[in-house]
Amino acid sequence: MKHSLTHVVRKVFDKNPESVLSHKQVCALIDVRENALRKLVYDILEDLVKQNLLQRASHGVYTKGISRSSVEGNIELTARGAGFVITDDEQADIYIAPQNVGQALNGDRVRVHIFKRGQSRNEGEVIDVLNRERTQFVGTIEMHEKFAFLVPDNAKAGTDIYIAKEKLKGAKQGDKALVKITVWPKSSKNPYGEVVEVLGKPGSNDVEMISILCNQGIDYKFPQEVLAEAEVIGLDLDPEEVKTRRDFRNITTFTIDPVDARDFDDALSFKRLENGHIEIGVHIADVSYYVRPGSEMDKEALKRSNSVYLVDRVVPMLPEQLSNMACSLRPNEDKFSFSAVFEMDENGKVYNQWFGKTVIHSDRRFSYEQAQEIIEGKEGDYKEEILILDKIAKILRKARLKHGALSIESEEMRFKLDETGHPSEVIIKTSKDAHKLIEEFMLLANKKVAMFVAEPKKGRDPVPFVFRVHDKPDVAKIALFNVFIDKFGYKLDFTTPDQIAGSINRLLDDIRLKNEYSLIQTMAIRSMAKATYETTNIGHYGLAFDFYTHFTSPIRRYADLVVHRILQEELTHKKHRYGKELDDVCKRISRMERKAVEAERESTKYFQTLFVQDHIGEEFTGTVSGIAEFGLFVKMDENYCEGMVPMNDIPGDRFYFDAEKYRIIGGKTKKEYNFGDKVRVRIYEVHPRKRQIDLELVVD
Questions:
Q1: For residues 693 and 268, what is the distance between their CA atoms, to the nearest angstrom?
Q2: Domain span at residue 682?
């Protein structure tokens, strides 16, 4: 019986070599209904897997081989348990229903069988987990009589983790803990794990920040082997290495950074030349001298990909021995740097350029505020140099905008913290001339390095390179942005991508002093594509550059470290070490950049809840900053914190979301709520752990 049934089962897969079939489907195809025979079919399928005649994918499905309908990609889970797989092959993301996610967790590399192709999207199921994005999660311990579960803080994590009592490491009911998944049996709904570290009771800033980091897969500690490697790096420069470098130590050099910065990536030097031109050096910390390919620090830096800046702390990409000491271009210390040096006139024209390894000595450290005071007329060190650099930066910026660059003014929400780490004041930091001065010279260096390495050269193949690219805007998103600004009485010309940039710039310039400026600029940014790292160059739309890379921040970005290595190989005519694997590096650093942004955003939301916690019941004037099916978001004008009014709690009518006109409207009264509307709200409830502020509308 078994022999003949095996023959029938094999025939099913021979006739359908690309099919991915479950045990139930196989039984249906060969018309097996009795329980005993159904069990025999299951045993046959498992035997065929052991003989390598079939492959068993996750979630109990079998296939003869990898189907052409199967693709690889990274899965992003939603809070409701569904997933979207982003692949290199498919243009659209593949939707995965919750029941088809299998044992995949957020961010995992998976193989997916596409069983339904549609016009708007394809649908599939996870048939194999190829690589776990992470195995450690932070959450709350939930005790049961004979075992415990970790309930992850992040709903997107995927599932609760089963923990045997002997694996709790002293964790008790309600504790926050870091738990590592050790195994996930095929027969189990939940993975098994063990407590790595008990973090304590929820609520402290330390515990919440660690939770935010871990939920994004960002390590908050360095492995011991990485720290050990960093510790042996001294601050004294090797005299023999100094001799091989161009010496800038006697040339006026200074840094301009945030007042609380500790990792100084970049410095500027200024020298008058006999021909009347100016030699301006953009000097970047020479991280590549200290962090060698394949070292423990290098592997860890790639894993992290960038530093993460939370409200109350920095989680560096490199250990502090490098990021804040050996590599940091601190004042009054000799430092190794990698430099882009330009011979320019005061109108910003570049006559000559030079790239290479240098040794510098920063004469002075300026904060942005100190440099800004000098630009605005105050006396200070290196006033002449700063004013000339500011003049050139303004000319470079004007030329960029004329060429089609977007004019976006950075605006950042910061908190002043008291001695206990509690937020005592909200500060909105805006970009002033001192910021733009540094920005323009960093943009110049990044652009010129990209052109030097990547511009086509006769008689040679292109060099594998890391580009910072920014795609043209999606017409549908711009159309939505047009609907949004229509609420304020504005229109946008978006016939071509070039017209979009110019039209947005004119709009922002016209409304710079109006209340809605910040909100409209934020929405303009959201309507744009996201910049990423790629090995294929498509240019940078937002900057209007044909060639662009990241060269100027290797202390905090792995992309820049790779670019330093490639540039040095190009300068010394050495064989380039990077090949096809550079594509995987770009994918990783782009993915980790998104995670860092999410962590930073969640950190800000958490501190917003702390800031307004003492104001429950108080009323504030606010601006409608977001509209969704479930309610409206309001940013309070006085404290810049944002909360949400649930749709069902809007008083006076039964309100609904009008997707076509992007508004919230009352069914009977036709009362509307639109972006930018001024409203009065009361803080109803605050949930620091959920990073959520609940508001209620105050209606006269």
A1: 44
A2: 616-697
